[in-house]
Amino acid sequence: MSPRKAAALRGSDDGLRDHLVATAQRLLAEQGAAGLTVRAIARAAGVADGVLYNHFSDKDELLAAAVGAHVAAAHADLGTLPAPGTATVRQNLAVYLRAGLTLHRAVLPVFAGLLATPAVLTRFAESRARDDDWRELLAAYLRAERDLGRLAPAADTAAATAVLVGICHDVVLTAMLPGATSPPGGSSVAVDVDAVDVDAIVATLLAGIAPPA
Predict the structure, then answer these.
(1) Partner of 66 for a Cys bridge, out of 8, 24, 56, 163, CB 3.0 to 4.6 A?
(2) Exposure on the CB side of residue 130, measured as CA atoms within 13 A
(3) pLDDT at site 81
(4) Architecture in CATH for domain 66-209
(5) Is the pTM of this model over 0.70?
(6) Cα angle vertex 97, ends 119, 210, to 5°?
(7) What are the residue ranges of CATH 1.10.357 in the chain?
């Protein structure tokens, strides 16, 4: 960042705060949280170290905001998910599962890098609005489809949600294990969403919650 641009941002509290969050978000995505210091964030943002404390009580607060921005961006990248009553449940669940795999590929490495600093994750959890979370959208979708009669009346939609979320965790976390193939550097994970047999998974799930023929 150029000194001229940094100086311009210093004149706007909101602009500078957003710039610091965006910088921390980029560093988290590129290199993870390990070794990410206030000085490193300040240098990447083109400001003095002490400027961060004009907007955040400590580094944990800044990182929590950065994680929130990263998760929000990952959700935004998913686009609009299918609405209840459209297409078929099988087609829609395949879309939801692919979206979940893409989302978890983007956010789980960042969360894993913050396990040594639980205060950041706690602050993120306390500030996170859950109504637009992929898992909550999936759960609401399944409940709505059951109400529409497109799933069995006694279908345990909470269990079905947990199964699909668990598959996302398993695929991405397995790719993060030592020895797994990952792109060099940063916190990204090599997960080929298209290689996951989404259709087979959805078919197996629906065998248990689909309405009687």
Answers:
(1) 24
(2) 7
(3) 97
(4) Orthogonal Bundle (1.10)
(5) yes
(6) 125
(7) 66-209
